[in-house]
Amino acid sequence: MPDLEKLLAYTALADQQAFAALYQATQRRAWAICLRLLRDPSAAEDAMQDAYVKLWHQAASYRPAQGTAEAWLNTVVRNTCLDKLRALGREPVESMDAMDTPLDPADAAPGPEQLLERSMSHGTLERCFGALKPQQRELLTQTYVMGHSHRELASRSGMALGTIKTVIRRAVIALRECLGEGVAS
């Protein structure tokens, strides 16, 4: 995998070759995200194009200290899809089960890097997420994966906004503590 941080830096300087290399390196994952969230190839194509236009214009806003380049790119793509869903008056997929099913055959067969990454981190994250209370898991999923605001969750569930924020905060703290323990052992 090419150095995405370097490609983003050159893209921020309007380097078209770097942007083309960035696109080549990330297009399969971006397409999978768009297709999973939008469930319509035509809408996914539109969202993917919009996402890469945003990436071209916003590459300079990437800050390495705040996370990996890949995570930042995936977030731009995901947020573009969520914006498109809202514009269409549709809700994101409500079940995480739908996110587990690969839609792109290339995603069904992970490469060696993905297999290594999964073997190192998947078990710990899965164990820590599974240790949360069901309500915490649900609210984290709705907030960080599905893109719902705390206010949206409060109006949907009938829970107080402060309660929603408290449950999510405690869940994030519990995950951090659990993942921290996993790293040290």
UniProtKB/TrEMBL annotation:
SUPFAM superfamilies reported for this sequence: Sigma2 domain of RNA polymerase sigma factors, Sigma3 and sigma4 domains of RNA polymerase sigma factors
Cite the InterPro entries for this sequence: RNA_pol_sigma-70-like (IPR039425), RNA_pol_sigma-70_dom (IPR014284), RNA_pol_sigma70_r2 (IPR007627), RNA_pol_sigma70_r4_t2 (IPR013249), RNA_pol_sigma_r2 (IPR013325), RNA_pol_sigma_r3/r4-like (IPR013324), WH-like_DNA-bd_sf (IPR036388)
What are the protein's GO molecular function terms?
DNA binding; sigma factor activity
- Tell me yes or no: is Transcription among this UniProt entry's keywords: yes
Listed A to Z, the keywords are: Sigma factor, Transcription, Transcription regulation
The record's Gene Ontology biological-process terms are: DNA-templated transcription initiation
- Residue ranges occupied by any RNA polymerase sigma-70 region domain in the UniProt entry: 22-90
One short Pfam family name for this protein? Answer: Sigma70_r2
Q: Where is the RNA polymerase sigma factor 70 region 4 type domain?
A: 125-173
Family listed: Belongs to the sigma-70 factor family. ECF subfamily.
Q: What is this protein called?
A: Putative RNA polymerase sigma factor
